Amino acid sequence: MPRIDSLRRVPPDGASGQFGPADGAHQSGAHFGRGRVALVHDYLTQRGGAERVVLSMMKAFPGAPLHTALFEPQATFDGFSGGVVKPMPLNAVPGLRRHHRLALPALARAFSRHHVEAEVVLCSSSGWAHGVEAHGAKFVYCYTPARWLYDTERYTQGWPVARPIARTLRAPLVRWDKRAASTADRYLTLSFAVKRRIADSYGIEAEVLHPPTTLDPTGPQEPVEGQAAGFYLCISRLLPYKNVGAIVAAFEQLPSRRLVIVGTGPERQQLQRRAGTNVQLIGSVSDAQLRWLYANCLAVVAAGHEDFGLSPIEAAAFGKPSAVLQWGGYLDSIVPDETGTFFAQPDPAHIAEAVDRLDQTHWCEHALRAQAARFAEPRFIARLQEIVSESMTS
User: Fold this and answer.
1) Which among 181, 198, 270, 372 could disulfide-bond with 317, CB atoms 3.0 to 4.6 Å apart, if both were Cys?
2) How many helices (H) and strands (E) does the chain have?
3) Would you give per-residue pLDDT tens digits along the chain (394 residues)?
């Protein structure tokens, strides 16, 4: 199993290793008064990394209204219920809040017709929110240019009904998407891989502002029933491009190791059928349970094509290393042989070999926590407030 050595390495770049406020972080957001900032997000119908980023944006700009196409409070994080959420008329269409992909043909028009007035309109977008009509400066925090437009085959893999719809709509939506991007005053993004993608898609130079980790490792923990310490952990939506099936197959080659998978999605039943006795899919968990899982796992394994990927950073905050795909945002967050190890392809043999390398490496818990501190929420909030303040007249 991975060996954690708390004294072996010093933290990089003089980092303290503390998972807490950074120097200069502006926590109150008091100078961003009513009407000065408005937030826009694609849809609030799930619990994912993008939704956690929006919660941090709400902390940066307290009281700012949050506009979104669809809002299903029971399906997303509780924190949104305490904010000023303004869903669009599309929200009243039955079924769309539970199945947001059915809204794809209507989302471009919905955002184009939606008017938001504020000194700064901050759009949290993976394909739609950047199309809103902003009366004020428009800033876009872009998770990626829309996958269904620029990576259609991979995005629709496993959804045979969606693929012909996406192909039919692709040409007009690409034109709409490029026009929407051109209306922004400033682009921000979460990783250097997506920065290059934005340049290729739109000809726009985006600033990289890494997303924050918000799962405080000092918070309460709740044991997960039926689990004992000493497992490997995969946290992912169960979608084709996340490659969770390859991880399951890898652990068929590793019968002495246990794998716990957290997440839901359309591939769950298929993965359940394939899973051996050393693999358990446990669905959704609370933050307290997630803390317990990180604290009691040996390491995290992630094979998805991620634009950033928070789970290795969250794992590092608990002093745990990761084995991840050498692709996309993981290149920003993993320091090879210091906070984790890479595998070149999302296939079972490469993943199994990376897990073996994890087991054979000494890991410095202090260095892992120091790396996580580079992505702490106060740093994200401070930089975001600074960027928005620069555009305000007073």
Assistant:
1) 372
2) 14, 15
3) 675 544 333 333 333 333 333 444 444 565 787 779 999 999 999 888 899 999 999 999 999 999 999 999 999 999 999 899 999 999 999 899 988 888 888 999 999 999 999 999 999 999 999 999 999 999 999 999 998 888 766 665 656 666 676 677 889 999 999 999 999 999 999 999 999 999 999 999 999 999 999 899 999 999 999 999 999 999 998 988 899 999 999 999 999 999 999 999 889 999 999 999 999 999 999 999 999 999 999 999 999 999 998 999 999 999 999 999 999 999 999 999 999 999 999 999 999 999 999 999 999 999 999 999 999 999 999 999 999 999 885 4
- H, E, C per residue of 262-313: ECCCCCHHHHHHHCCCCEEECCCCCHHHHHHHHHHEEEEEECCCCCCCCHHH
| Alpha helix positions (H), the chain | 49-60, 104-112, 147-150, 152-155, 162-182, 192-202, 244-252, 268-274, 287-296, 311-317, 330-333, 348-359, 365-373, 377-390
